[in-house]
Amino acid sequence: MSQLEKKAGLLRRTSSSKKPLKEKVVLMYDEIFAKEDPAKNNPRFWDELFLMKVNLEYLESKLESVDGEEVQRIQDNINSLFHHCVQALGEEHQIKVVNALQTLCALFRGVHQKNKSTSGFDIINMLMGFDKAEQRMKDLMERLDSLLCGDGSESLKSLCLKLLLCLVTVTDNISQNTILEYVMINSIFEAILQILSDVSSRGQHGYDAVVLLALLVNYRKYESVNPYIVKLSIVDDEPTLDVSISLLTVQYKDKEEEHQGGFFSTLTSMVGSMFIADADEKLSVQTNEAILLALYEAVHLNRNFITVLAQSHPEMDIPTTPTTPTPTTPTTPLGTTPPSLDMMNNPELPLDPNLQTSNLLITFLKYASIVMQDTKDEHRLNSARLCLIILTCIAEDQYADAFLHDDNMNFRVNLHRMVSFWLLEDTLHRKKAVDKNIPSRPLVCAVLDLMVEFIVTHMMKDFPMDLYLRCVQIIHKLLCYQKKCRIRLHYTWRELWSALINLLKFLLSNETTLLAKHNIFHLALLVVNLFNMFITYGDTFLPTSNSYDELYYEIVRMHQVFDNLYCMVLRVSTNTGQWKEAASKVTHALINVRAIVNHFNPKIESYAAVNHISQLSEEQVLEVVRSNYDTLTLKLQDGLDQFERYSEQPKEAAFFKELVRSISLNVRKNVSLNTLSQDILLKEFSTIS
Amino acid sequence: MADAEVSLSPALRALHLSPAHSPPPPPPPAGTMAASSSSPTTFSCPSSPSSASSSSSSSSSSSCSESSSDCPAHHHHHHHHHHHHPRPLPPPPPPPPGEQPSSPSASPRSSSPSGSIGSTGSLGSSSSSSASEGIGSSGTSSAGGGGGGGGGACDPRGPSPPLDVISEDAMEMDLAVDQVIDPEVALKACQEVLLQVQLQNREVPEQQQQQQQLNNNNTDVTESAGPQWDAGSIREEEEEDGEEEEEEKRGSVREISESTSSSAAASKQSWLLRLFESKLFDVSMAIAYLYKSKEPGVQAYIGNRLFSFPDSEVDFYLPQLLNMYVHMDTEVGDAISPYLIYRCRGGIAFSLLTAWLLGAYSSDMHISTQRHSRGAKLRKLILSDELKPSSPPPDAHSRACMASVSGSPATSPSHARRCHRRHNSSSVESSLSLCAAGTAPAKAEADIDVFVSPSRRTHQRSKSDATTASSGPGAGLRRTGSNPKVEAVHEEPDRLRPQRELVKSLLGIGKRLATLPTKEQKTQRLISELSLLNHKLPARVWLPTAEHQHHVCRVPHTQAVVLNSKDKAPYIIYVEVLECESFETSPVPVRIPETRIRSARSAENLDCGVSAANAIANGGSGMTSEHRAGSFSTVPNYDNDDEAWATDDIGQLQVETQTSSSDNISQFSVDSITSLESKEPVFIAAGDIRRRLSENLAHTPTSFRRDPEDPSAVALKEPWEEKVRRIREGSPYGHLPNWRLLSVIVKCGDDLRQELLAYQVLRQLQSIWQQERVPLWIKPYKILVMSSDSGMIEPVLNAVSLHQVRKQSQLSLLDYFLQEHGSFTTEEFLTAQRNFVQSCAGYSLICYLLQVKDRHNGNILLDSEGHIIHIDFGFILSSSPRNLGFETSAFKLTSEFVDVMGGLNGDMFIYYKMLMLQGLIAARKHMEKVLQIVEIMQQGSHLPCFHGSSTIRGLKERFHMSLTEEQLQLLVEQLVDGSMRSITTKLYDSFQYVTNGIM
């Protein structure tokens, strides 16, 4: 925290002499921190100051070291410094602009570090003075806006974004950052969008811009009207969205490739199911949180975005992008010109026969399949949760559903599957089959696969109940859509059924441990209701009549699980306790399943007895099932095809608050690292000017 | 104007010849006439514009002066002087018809450039050919036909009365068109030359004789068509005023010809002319003469005459015209180019079509010559978008352009050059024209140059205008009018670009797809590429294969499929268009984002306004639950409030339950909702669910299975109507009343020129059969050649290939018919069977005549009405696949086909053979029309179908002109018999199965 010593050390190194020979800029800083108006003796003080190379460390530490009394004393000078910084942003001399930007960074950071505890208003007063704050910030935002949108140097734009990121992340809790109120009033949303929509700037600043946007959207999102939320929700410029999407794609791809390497090596060495969690890996997961958050906000807030999400592109040409982030990816049509003018301007997609066609959704699914493999660490858990939340939003969106189910749009999605020891054989087996020939199917199959995969692979002691709930709800939403639209998906539902039954089994066998932490009845209810969907509405969405028979077969085959579940919930519901009600719901939900079991089991047994067969084959059981439907009566249950819509507030608010906090911390850390190394920048401008 | 000279009557001629241009009976017209008469021979008459105008009588002055004001007008003037016609000028200036008064400037404008050219042309040609005779005849011709033809030609573009009217009543036409002088003049010159030549050669083509007979028979017709001299004379006089200039020119021409002399029997020579001028003279004949005649005069005449045909008729022969333009001698090219350029100015569609075809037809030339070829140059010119449409008074413009261009090629080279020098003094100019008369034929560039060098030209023009500015109020206007270039400078950017870009990206997609290994990858790629395309739509682009004017507004990209082809990647796309008045001028539809169709919660809803609201209304009301699967996206959100996110699903459910019929909606959703209220337990039988499931599955229509290796089968099998409805429901534009769905196949790497040729032949035969009332059924599908290795094809709707039928249904063809249409005795089956027979007969003939090969089942489609349709004419005439020599039979007739026809002894089979006989007889009758199409295209072509020297002869022989009908009948029997027995058909099928997996 207080790094004064370190700063001093640095200082010494730069001056490289035993006697601390102070740089001129440091002397000037000292003048600022004196009582006198520094311009009093030297009218050109401010001009000169911004020609000096900024010493961030010194300035920040100086600010930190100022104590309450002094603050009052030197406030005028600091206000003046701030004012001149803003003024300098309008200078033609780019060195001055750069220095001013960096000085502002230092000011924001230094002031905040000093005043961790104090209220935002004091900070504003200290930096700008209450009376002038509004005007100052307006000027600042306008200058930044014009710098970002102008055709100036890219490095300059980058620095502007860094400043903004710095400003946004100075507090741990973004909503406590009072200065952002001015950023709300003086919106730079358009500037951010423009950066995202411009092909060249997107490559260089896209990441920063997206993170910045994601953070700004989260500023007091529940308490007040956040203009960034409003604006983000109404962007309907498809090309722009498209551009930002492809940026995200690139980011995802990057990460995914990383993981892929890790994953495959893990797989081949059969070490286990975890990634090698080195520091880099951690970092990347954290940075991914920011991008996932951005994706979430876009999906959640903007309906048009779903369209874009579904828009397919050939997969990005990754090898070229990581090294040179210059956007050679010409996938994106020029966003701003009206369609008729830039008509077909850039219709060329990168041509490589080896490239699979992809779209963000596919990339996202693949990414999610990686993220969800390991949920042990908190960041990873957060990422997985965020992925599932995004999928929830998608599954609720009509348009996205239409796309997911479009029979004409078939894709091969290579999901990453976990090899866990206790399922090793099974999974390996599957893995092989999968690798050989992934069928090209509507995307929803991939989503379902992903859900099945998750269900199967996370039945562990440290049970991620929340993720399971989300997972099952996603499946439910998809089924509701299929039922509503009578879409008969050719999916191997059996895999899902058996995964769900296995899940119930797991819940039963770990009842005591799980009940200590979770309401397992809620999950059990959801699962049983999925079966009820199939049982009562199967006629509307099952692909073949045979699949309905198979459903019965599966239930009857695994009847013990249902029997045990029934016993368990009956037991719990008859006792008085906190789970009484939850358990009794499950008992009611089990009516039809039990009816099936009770109806067919005797039939099958008698069939076996009559035919003197000890072990009936599947075909024989199916035969029995087919011939005995008519005597079975089912009860129609209420609201099977209704679900609770996703809403961020209040349920998820805490999660997002924490997430934003963690992202803020992370960004702050990275930004400070980055801003310190601006030598290149300075060189660039000194040579130019 | 033209009609003025209609008469053959010696008297009139005498009148014309009479040196004294005495004022016409009614009021003696002084002015121009007098002036011209005074110095009949002086070409160099240096009469300045002003003098000319002043000299002209007051009555005639207006038009005269105007014409004179423009530099080129000098020509007129000076011809004018030669004008020997004693045209009686009606005392008052001719009542200007139609819009004439309103645009006085137009007349000089249009007349000036063309006029100069035309007149010189006439000079040149007449002098060169020493046209002695013509006068009388020329008089005639120019009078009736000339007027009808040339004059009429100009006008259909203008607001003036339509061509037919004109040709039928030359008077009217004249009045209306009076401004357009030059083509007329050129025309007459040609005519004269033509006649002279004929006289000299003493050869009268047989057609001409026939035509003469025709003419005799149709005297009345001709009379009505073109004003006869006697009838017209009076009228002519009336018009005279308006048309002095023309008259003058004509006069000059005539004078020259006269001077050369002999006065032979004009009537005889006029036969050809009479033919040309007769109603029977259609585009087909024009093309034939253009191709066969080596006489520049004839060619030039026809070049002009092209203007008089409806665009659509000429368009059919565009490939022929362009091929001639590219590959034949300069005279032909010169004759055509005015027309081409005129039409290119007229429309983007024509321009692009022409440019594409030019490129394609030039591709067979050696690369070095190609670059400098006329075709390449014209192509470049078109693509440079220099050929802008003319502005405000469009008729005047176009005429001007047309005239100016038409003059030069029609006559002599110098004209073009002269255009540039128009600003020279009249004396210079006239002398030039004199010189020019004798010079070599024009270079192709010359006339093009006129247009290519706008700057130069404008410059000169302004100069010339400056000198004459005082002469009339129309001067300023005139500039813009006569020279579109001037205003082109200020005009909007490239008109052709959007469409070219569209085509480019479509073809680019095709090329990239070809590199992908599997169908599946191709399809995915295709879809994603098309989705990008959507970002740029709507735009001022259209599908050239469509009938109606429209703008493309959206490509439902997920519907596109890759077609079956081994190494190329042709694909079919569906395109949503909005019909409009004219894609060039109507405003481009506003983009509606995909998501608009679902009412979004976002604030943009506020301004998205009516269209979205409509969409919602439409979607809501039009939707039945039956459509639900397809139409989910049109389902409106009824909640526009904050809760939109959370409730739209439920909202929809309720709406559905209220509006849908009980049958289609899931009963359970009804139940579940009602049960919510009643709380009464509802019981259902598991058996019912199971039964409903199998019933539902059984009820789904007979669609093809989805096969990743054959993605097109499913897409093509879906009935068109259903597809349209489905796509419309999913489209944000679907609610618009002018919404249409079109489809097109994009082909890359395939030369479609042969396909185009086949299309033309098919169309020709189709119309012949229609004309002769033979109920043969064929389906020519439109072909768009875009280069020698790319193009587009209009898909045949509701049709799948026999291969797909067989593979998917696993049935014999007959059984498939029974499955699709019902049992033998049903109306549906019988209709389908009749359709099958009629189409079989049609295509059997086609296959025989054109020697269509590669007839495997993948190339024969079956439509939902039972017609077969042959596609892929890649191997016709002299070429066959890989020269394996399979398929020696005349056409493909398998026993399966015969089975569908009811067996060898069935009535339908006899009907089939009878149809073929009738079809052959009819085709034979019009053989020339068919031959001509093919023959012209052979010029300079390296297409495989023209391989060898006997292509045309072979084709001709297959019409068996020499056989009697009985013999023909025998021939048909033989052909049918031979084809049926042919083992090669079978052999070829199995060959295809082995090599390409086509069943």
From TrEMBL, chain A:
Pfam families: ARMH3_C
Keyword annotations of the record: Membrane, Transmembrane, Transmembrane helix
Gene of this entry: armh3
Armadillo-like helical domain boundaries: 435-671
One GO CC annotation: membrane
Protein name as annotated: Armadillo like helical domain containing 3
Domain of life according to the entry: Eukaryota
Organism lineage string: Eukaryota, Metazoa, Chordata, Craniata, Vertebrata
Localization per record: Membrane
Coiled-coil region list: none
